[in-house]
Amino acid sequence: MDENRLFQIVDSYRDDIVSTLQKWISIPSLGAEKTAPNEPFGKEVRRMLDTALEDARMMGFDAQEFDGYAMHAQMGQGEKTMGILCHLDVVPVGDGWTKDPWGGEVSDGKLYGRGTADDKGCAVVSLYAMKAVREAGIKLKNGVRLILGCDEETGMSDMRHYASKNKMPDYGFSPDAEFPVINIEKGHVNLKLSGAFTQDAEAEIKVYEMNAGERPNVVPGIARAVLGAQDEYKLKADVASMIVTDGLKLSVNKLEDGKFELVATGKGSHASMPQLGVNAAGMLLIALSKLNIGKTLLRPVLALAGKLGLEGDGKSLGIACGDEESGELTCNLGILRYDGTMLACVLDIRAPICAEYNALCGSAVRSLKGSGLGVEILSETPVYHVDKDHEVVKGLIDAYTRVTGQQGYAFAIGGGTYSRMMPNTVAFGPNFPGDTDMCHMPDEYVDIDKLMTAAKIYALAIAKLAGEDERDEKPVKNRSIAIDGPCGAGKSTVAVEAAKRLGGNYLDTGAMYRAMSVYMLDNGIDVSDASLVSANAENAHVDVKYDEAGVQHTCLNGEDVTDRLRAPEVSMAASKVSSVAKVRELLVKRQKELAREMFLVCDGRDIGTCVITDAALKIYLTATAEERARRRFNEMEDKSMGFEAVLNDINQRDYNDMHREISPLMKAEDAIELDTTHMSFEQVVEEVMRLYRERVQ
Predict the structure, then answer these.
(1) What single DSSP character describes residue 267?
(2) How far is the C-alpha of 219 from the C-alpha of 282, rounded, in Å?
(3) 285-301 pLDDT, tens per residue?
(4) Mind telling me the catalytic residues?
(5) Which fold has domain 188-382?
(6) Domain spans of the chain?
(7) With b meaning 16 or more CB within 10 Å and e meaning fewer, what string describes 111-134?
(8) Tens digit of pLDDT for each residue in 336-361?
């Protein structure tokens, strides 16, 4: 598979991806009440579904919809089907926006709008990733199916309906979270805390309403209470004191009917990551607990303010827990309501593997004893877990690593995705490590460059998991040239020139070992300790890329380190690092892959015997020791060393290279020996080209 061609195809779609996403963002696909038999989630969600359906068909995919609940676009067929699960519905806009949530504005390389990150951006690039795989001509062993649902945010009834109409795919991924790979999704529990509480007649401050949050899975950014107060000055003074003393972001507005509105302003975020937000509902409760609202209502308000407040870990509520594999429990006060009689709130809890739901409920009941609040489990979803050694997890990690140059890994999140709706499926992107999660946030956006990187990752993942196994394909004739031989034979200069004239790429394998050495030095690893070097080698992803002029650039974990490779300390380290078996194993593996992906001319001491064993042409370039010493001596500016010393050095290096424990210098059985003792440089290059044309072209 030519990965570079696949990535070039993805890059060519950039403008189309942006325009398609802008079109999809312009549709406010918020879930609503059923408006027709084929509109189970309202007219706008139906319009979004029809738009995606039309776009998929325009791209040439077999696309169908299922009663307004979901659609799919598919290509290929096989014994199994790979699934990609995305959704078209979005959460409400909420407060705090400075951009048009449906405008699709592009500014500073970012595309803004509700659904850009969650999850329309992923749906769009997944569709184009499938198109790129098809355009690249990659043969598929399995079918590939992109499923787009319409009810992910409010219960996933779309997938249950879809599953009643279709056999679900056998494996896959859901691009609705973070990279590298999420193999564990915490359990999900919604607890309702509620009770009846009337106002005390003697209360100085009357509370008529409390209102915060629209859905439990969002940290409320704004919370409001409607109050009655005889002393306006004292109310405002008390609130001002809280702003200064407690750091609460509060404001008081007088309403037309003489009542007052107390507003708490926090910061919205996804409930699975409450630490990224500030819970306005908890802030409002803290503020009300400091006012004279009467004993009856103060009792539950004090309990909620003290046990929940601005916390996001459930510690004060007595439900905090965690484990090494799936992390810590999170707790979000997502909805708060009071109408003058009934007080109710809904908690969104993301529970680790070690949590037991009835125990959590019991702990909450004990913590709230005496508050007058009852505790009820509204819904519960178990932990979802795919083993980190599963072939799907390993394949996705490999795709992420290959595209980004960063070593992938599997981890747990609190969010729930479509992954649990399909077997052997995990969440996979689109957020990258260290990115701000804009899911459910005001001014939600997606970085276009990173979205394009995600598209390449998805395309490669499809090709690797659903494409034909290269080991099972008929052998592809390798076009590369392997040149081996002793030192001073002119291998490198001949290889560089031959690559240039034949239209190939010259692979400097030594640069790859030097890049590995850079990693060891940068991370303080003692290169003299082979066991340490071996243990850390897999953390360094070394690769090469070629610019338009055919110049090799050597990359370390995605960063071009070419300019650092000739530093004296790197040269000294490379001689030690290159002798470590694990290092050679990793780099030789990549060198073999490169030789399959492109036409290479490569030189060394074991290229034909160990690295490119199926090279189209193998040459053993040699000359007498005396001739090689003469060439080396003539190149030296300082000749004080003397010819005999140079000759002795050549002979010693020959002996060392031929007697190395790992990959000693030797002529491959099918190599052509080319003795250059009496040949000029031009004659040698011409002979290499003649042999190549004779053997290959």
Answers:
(1) B
(2) 10
(3) 999 999 999 999 999 99
(4) 89, 152
(5) Alpha-Beta Plaits (3.30.70)
(6) 3-181+385-466, 188-382, 477-504+599-697, 510-592
(7) bbbbbbbbbbbbbbbbbbbbbbbb
(8) 999 999 999 999 999 999 999 889 89
